[in-house]
Amino acid sequence: MSNRNVLLAIALVSFGLIGAAMYLQHVLYLMPCPLCVIQRYLFIAVGLAALVGALTSKPKLGAGVGLLAALGGLGVAGKQLYVLSQPSLSCGIDPMETMLNKIPTAEYLPWLFYAEGLCQDAKEKFMGLQVPTWAFIWFGILAAVTAWAMLRKRA
Q1: Of 147, 13, 125, 17, nearest to 71 (Cα)?
Q2: Beta strands in the chain (DSSP E)
Q3: d(CA 10, CA 17)
């Protein structure tokens, strides 16, 4: 399998995860908190980097940028899991939420990027795990696969 095919698969998975987030928000009514919205941006960044890498002559660069976004996602999802494990913590209505909701993407695509939930409320389980746990797992998988695509010799 070529790096381009691997990167196309990474893009497909990343955008599919955004579709899953839309399902959770608009069908199951799980409102995204600020950390969830940041993870959405990072999943999209992984997907776009992988797609650009697959469609250009720089697949390793696309994989590298995707890896950085996936590692950022691991950090954000890890922070959200930490918040969930500490009942006294909250991301609540704070300056981060206000700032996120003023970014043009949140103003023009509120159905995708508007934060209105609370991080400590993200305890609802989906297929046996909390949604932030799923995000952490998927960012880990995407980080591993993008690193593999970046480091392998096959073009």
Answers
A1: 147
A2: 125-126, 129-130
A3: 11
In the chain, the N- to C-terminal Cα span, in Å, equals 9
The phi, psi pair for 91, rounded to 5°, reads -95, -20
Q: For residue 3, what are the CA distances in angstroms to 11, 30, 58, 60, 67?
A: 12, 36, 10, 8, 14
Instruction: Give, for all 155 residues of the chain, the pLDDT tens digit.
Output: 788 899 999 999 999 999 999 988 888 888 888 888 999 999 999 999 999 999 998 899 999 999 999 999 999 999 888 888 877 766 555 667 777 777 888 888 887 777 776 665 566 777 888 888 999 999 999 999 999 988 887 64
What is the rounded distance in angstroms from the CA atom of residue 126 to the CA atom of residue 124?
Answer: 7
pTM: 0.87
